[in-house]
DNA sequence: TCTGGGGTCCTAGGACCC
DNA sequence: TCTGGGGTCCTAGGACCC
């Protein structure tokens, strides 16, 4: 248990990582996402601040991003997402953070918690200078638990430091909508509004039982605790152990032919099987995902009996599930997922 | 405007068992 | 003969995050 939790978040990570190896792009709007095909049906993963200035943010459809930037920034640069490279850059940053001698919990490519019993502002500045040695920059949130640290980072971006504790929690965001809290999205915000809860302070004062009746026995009380600013003070410093592996593809054009669908499914299943084998663990359950032209998404899953990592067995079960699902509309996306056995 | 890919966790209903 | 309640597993879907 740590007295202070710090949350480090790399600024515009994917775009910044690209600038590391292409310094000549500095100052230009840089948009990372998809496979680099200008017409692909994909979205922006990360946009540099120069691109954000023109309304291009994460999640913007790539075609729309091109249109928005074409007007004012014909010099904008579009790059395909190179996940293997970003992972290497991330690994190096996390290695440096672990070198600080404090507990570190990695929670994403570009985010980590660092715990300390020492002076948190001094550590926050050390984190920023340490990360800067890689050529990247980060914002740091300081909190008395993980939730307050992560929330604080939102006030620190880009590249700053902000502290959020029990002392200033409600003064800072008590009147903000519940969606200001990490883990509360649009659907939950809507459901809470139906209960008359429209602010973080209101959520904190709600009766957990009332929220549970609307949002579930576990989630209801959890949301109330979020409103109160409660979070962990214990970090999980162990390596991340994946619970599932999946691969999915949105096709350039919708597929209707059953043989085409099965051929694509087989490719995905084999890629998943490769990932499962690389984990050195068995697959216990196989799932597929089908999204049709109308964007309706359905899933099917079934236990793999016996569990294993044989690509043929995983692909065969995926094929059975696709036949059962038998989509009757043109298919936009196919996905295959393997749930992994508990690590030994 | 036309909506990615890779993940995690929770919920709820039905089956099944005692 | 009829009725019960609780626990657990399986599965589909929802919500959210980066």
Automatic annotation (TrEMBL):
Keyword presence, Metal-binding: no
Catalytic reaction annotation: DNA(n) + a 2'-deoxyribonucleoside 5'-triphosphate = DNA(n+1) + diphosphate
Recorded superkingdom: Bacteria
Enzyme class: transferase
EC number(s) from the headed UniProt entry: 2.7.7.7
Keyword annotations from UniProtKB, A to Z: Nucleotidyltransferase, Transferase
Domain UmuC as annotated: residue spans: 5-185
InterPro entries attached to this UniProt entry: DNA/RNA_pol_sf, DNA_pol_Y-fam_lit_finger_sf, DNA_pol_Y-fam_little_finger, DNA_polymerase-Y, DNApol_IV, Rev_trsase/Diguanyl_cyclase, UmuC
Protein family per UniProt: Belongs to the DNA polymerase type-Y family.
Function field: Poorly processive, error-prone DNA polymerase involved in untargeted mutagenesis. Copies undamaged DNA at stalled replication forks, which arise in vivo from mismatched or misaligned primer ends. These misaligned primers can be extended by PolIV. Exhibits no 3'-5' exonuclease (proofreading) activity. May be involved in translesional synthesis, in conjunction with the beta clamp from PolIII.
Name by which UniProt lists this protein: DNA polymerase IV
Species: Pseudonocardia nematodicida
Lineage, broadest ranks: Bacteria, Bacillati, Actinomycetota, Actinomycetes, Pseudonocardiales
